[in-house]
From TrEMBL:
Parts of the chain that traverse the membrane: none
Localization of this protein: Membrane
Bilayer topology term: Single-pass membrane protein
Domain Malectin-like: start-end pairs: 32-356
Alphabetical keyword list: Membrane, Signal, Transmembrane, Transmembrane helix
Official protein name in the record: Probable LRR receptor-like serine/threonine-protein kinase At5g59680
InterPro entries (UniProt xref): Malectin-like_Carb-bd_dom (IPR024788)
Keyword Transmembrane recorded: yes
Signal sequence interval, chain numbering: 1-23
Superkingdom, natural source: Eukaryota
GO cellular component: membrane
Lineage: Eukaryota, Viridiplantae, Streptophyta, Embryophyta, Tracheophyta
């Protein structure tokens, strides 16, 4: 965004607050602490969250384990203090059990932490089976980074591969898989690569599991031209997407009530990306009989629908893209504009943006001799995690 140009990972423990509520079911979650030493307990409880992590050793046979520099490790959560790195071979793959045909959130995190004392942040490629996913360039992201997609596997095994592309050594800190229902995030154009996911609040709290039953990560985002409104009432979040109730309990409205609420961004590295938008609305003010709130959605200056949005009182409405959207030269602008009959400015509670990513080949290469990986479906471990991070 012009006000929101990048979402880089910051995992320093003292700079964020995790909002934790009642426990939710964690069935099917896989949370791997990559490089956890064999002499340390697995699974183990992460003390700040009470959730468990498991060693990745069951799911990969290659690589070596490392630990980031102690001066950095003292400020981080335990799962980030270790890593697995791959000095040998061009391609090293994790082999994970998944449910064929079901939507899954797949998330990988990477932190160099000068584990080898060489001060040489690596660059390498990340693959989903034989399909390119993205390039990890930790030279630009010294605080680490994460990659996240929503994807429907075509088999019951999923390979996540690190591919050496130069002279530096690939590494990984954590790897997570979360099953999601097929009645959400469905597209006809490919898988969804997370661009950003925010809830509009002046809070500094990062929301995820157990607030979010799917362990999506929501970052608080606010702009100086907005005013925050909040409610202490419970906001109904029951629909196919179920964003956290805490994310719906606040919203942004433009301070100048006659102005639109604008969120924009620039993606010059990939100007031809296709975008899917998921907008979450709930009326959290007690409107008087003479008050009306309705508004239109505008994308790059064009009206997105002929029907205005009228948020339901204390109940979620999610508006999703049926087809992906494009931006001229990678410059994207989303706006909410009040209608002529509205007495109140538009509001927005939470907002998700994804880009389309194509994985045309099966995520599992059946020629196991090509990969250094292990298949161990019988050891499907129902582990789960909540990893602390914050965007800047």
């Amino acid at each position: 965004m012009a006000r929101y140009h990048g979402l880089w990972l910051l995992i320093i423990k003292t700079l964020a607050i995790i909002h934790i509520v009642q426990a939710q079911s964690q069935q099917g979650f896989i949370s791997l602490d990559c490089g956890l030493p064999t002499n340390e307990p697995s699974p183990y409880k992460e003390e700040s969250t009470g959730l468990q992590f498991s060693s990745d050793a069951t799911f990969i046979q290659s690589g070596q384990t490392g630990r980031i520099q102690p001066t950095l490790a003292s400020r981080l959560l335990k799962p980030y203090t270790t890593l697995r790195y791959f000095p040998n071979g061009t391609r090293n793959c994790y082999n994970l059990p998944v449910e064929k045909g079901r939507n899954h959130l797949i998330r990988a995190r990477f932190l160099y932490g000068n584990y080898d004392g060489l001060d040489n942040n690596p660059t390498f490629d990340l693959y989903l089976g034989p399909n390119p996913w993205t390039t990890i360039d930790l030279r630009r992201l010294v605080n680490g980074t994460r990659e996240e997609i929503i994807h429907i596997p075509t088999s019951n095994k999923l390979q996540v591969c690190l591919v050496k592309t130069g002279t530096t050594t690939p590494l990984i800190s954590t790897l997570e898989v979360r099953p999601i229902g097929n009645d959400s995030y469905s597209t006809q154009f490919g898988s969804l690569n997370l661009f950003f996911r925010v809830y509009l609040s002046e809070s500094k709290t990062t929301l995820r599991y157990p607030d979010d039953i799917y362990d999506r990560i929501w970052t608080a985002y606010f702009w100086k031209e907005w005013t925050q409104i909040t409610t202490t009432s419970s906001v109904g979040n029951s629909n196919n997407y179920e964003p956290p109730k805490a994310a719906l309990a606040s919203a942004a409205v433009p301070t100048n009530a006659s102005e639109p609420l604008t969120i924009d961004w620039t993606n010059t590295e990939k100007p031809d990306d296709l975008y899917y938008l998921y907008r979450h609305f709930a009326e959290i003010q007690d409107l008087q009989t003479n008050e009306t709130r309705e508004f239109n959605m505008v994308w790059n200056g064009e009206l997105m629908s002929t029907d205005p949005i009228i948020p339901d009182e204390l109940k979620i409405t999610t508006i999703l893209s049926v087809t992906p959207r494009t931006c001229a030269k990678g410059e994207c602008t989303f706006q909410l504009k009040r209608t002529n009959r509205s007495t109140l400015p538009p509001l927005l509670n939470a907002f998700e943006v994804y880009t389309v990513i194509q994985f045309p080949q099966s995520e599992t290469n059946e020629n196991e001799g090509m990969f250094q990986c292990v298949s161990n479906i019988n050891s499907f471990i129902h582990v789960r995690s909540i990893l602390l991070f914050f965007y800047f």
